[in-house]
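Could you show me just one protein sequence together with its fold in token form as a worked example?
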Amino acid sequence: MSTTTADPAPDIAAAAATDVILFDGVCNLCQASVQFVIARDPSRRFRFAALQSDIGRRLLAAHDVAIPDLSSVILVADGRVHVKSSAALRVCRRLRGAWPLMAAFLVLPLFIRDAVYDVIGNRRYRWFGKKDVCWVPTADLGDRFLDQDWEPRV
């Protein structure tokens, strides 16, 4: 929960000008995925926010998206919201290296892609664990995160 009295509108405006990845802030796999993206995004195209954060909830509401369960990564890009496998593959398409080749899987039917995604997503805490609080990025990465001051939903 934010302790600042600043107007929240600039956060939404800043988010609209960039690609935002919303992730489960207490999931170890999700946090590792964010760090993976940061390492392969030298142009700093992506910004991040926890799904549990106020800015995450407001960003989804601004796009008329119902607040999801926390088992999905969400990409807000080019005025559209992508979830699950569509979000992950669209993120890969914008990374450095061979990762854009993963976008070829977008030709597979959504129900197949999301079924594979759900197998991992539904077991991520069991396989990778979770934290009681969100990962705090280093100071040089702070501007990549839209809201670091939030309370985890346990």
